[in-house]
Design goal:
Blueprint lengths: L14 H52 L6 E2 L2 E3 L2 E3 L2 E2 H5 L6 H6 L35 E3 L15 E3 L3 E4 L41 E5 L5 H10 L18 H8 E2 L15 H8 L9 E6 L4 E5 L4 H8 L11
Parallel strand pairs: 7-9
Antiparallel strand pairs: 1-4, 2-3, 5-6, 7-8, 8-10, 10-11
């Protein structure tokens, strides 16, 4: 009687089969990656829009209490050599977006004390609600020194927390021109030097007038030309310092934005001084295709970069009597 022997051998994958599997996995990853990136982009845009809504509501609350929106900037006055009473719209709103400690910490009597403590100074603090997750800031805190801030008073040089947002100054925020009149700014928005705008002043309609917009910090061409075309001005990555109050041009450039250029405007290759000034306070974002905005009625929404400049400017003015459809 013969017995049969059955041989069981384990067959491994051939090199060709392994390569096929790797190729399939690569194709699947390539197909999924855009969807993952789109989901992340959507989440960042939603988070930013939520910031905008909170800032709009904070401004509405401020208006309810004070019967006006906060001033864009009130510049310090000299009292026996001490810069006193400097404030801007973000400082004024600290109490209204749950930054009570920073509100109490801000020194109105001697603005130098807001700078003097280095990286732990009040103005060096990072405020999360003022940062968009799609804004590619290399640093959330920047240092202003004599080398990169030649045009600001020595007492104001130090560390500053950054912001991705700015108040609507109207058609033009910079350059403001000489004190005390600052004739270069249009003063037709909501926030500017010594502004005191009420809802009743917004005759174009609060749902058709911008309150806040985004600032996009990525512009390599601006930084390439800045030292030559705008000497003494900070690079793009250092504009948007929420606690800056030291001077007219600096305050307007750091806490306000304007409609002098289209949404997501980038510095041209051969930009001159006007083109660079337009870019300094242009609305823009890291969100594909446009930017988020808050309106004077407390609402917030995304607007396309394809919006014509004339329409953006109409939305930036509070009493321009333009006929405009809200995007």
């Amino acid at each position: 009687m013969s017995s049969s022997h059955v041989s069981h051998t384990r067959r491994g994958m051939t090199l060709i089969e392994l390569l096929v599997v790797i190729a399939i996995v690569g194709v699947l990853v390539a197909m999924l990656l855009p969807a993952v990136q789109a989901a992340r982009g959507s989440a960042r845009r939603t988070s930013c829009l939520n910031n905008m809504r909170q800032l709009g509501l904070a401004s509405q609350h401020y208006h309810d209490v004070n019967k006006r929106f906060p001033t864009g900037a009130r510049l310090p006055i000299d009292v026996a050599g001490v810069p006193t009473d400097g404030v801007n719209l973000w400082v004024a709103l600290l109490l209204y977006f749950e930054q009570d400690n920073l509100h109490r910490w801000w020194d109105y009597k001697d603005n130098r004390n807001n700078v003097a403590a280095g990286t732990i100074a009040v103005q060096a603090q990072v405020i999360e609600i003022l940062l968009c997750p799609a804004d590619p800031l290399p640093e959330n805190v920047v240092e202003m020194t004599a080398a990169n801030a030649a045009l600001i008073p020595p007492w104001s040089r130090g560390f500053y927390g950054m912001s991705s947002y700015g108040g609507n100054a109207g058609k033009r925020s910079v350059p403001p021109g000489p004190a005390p009149d600052y004739p270069g700014i249009t003063r037709d928005g909501i926030f500017f030097i010594d502004s005191s705008v009420r809802l009743s002043h917004i005759t174009d309609g609060s749902s058709k007038t911008l309150l806040f917009g985004e600032r996009f910090h990525h512009d390599p061409q601006f930084d390439l030309l800045q030292a030559v075309v705008l000497p003494g001005v900070a690079p793009m990555t250092a504009l948007g310092r929420w606690g800056f109050v030291a001077g007219g041009g600096g305050a307007m450039a750091n806490v306000t934005l304007h409609a002098a250029a289209k949404i997501n405007y980038q510095t041209p290759v051969a930009a001159d001084n006007p083109a660079m000034q337009n870019r300094t306070c242009a609305f823009g974002s890291g969100h594909p295709g446009g930017a988020n905005f808050a309106f004077a009625d407390g609402s917030a929404r995304f607007m396309s970069e394809e919006l014509p400049l004339e329409q953006l400017q109409a939305l930036s003015t509070r009493a321009g009597e333009e006929v405009v459809q809200t995007p």
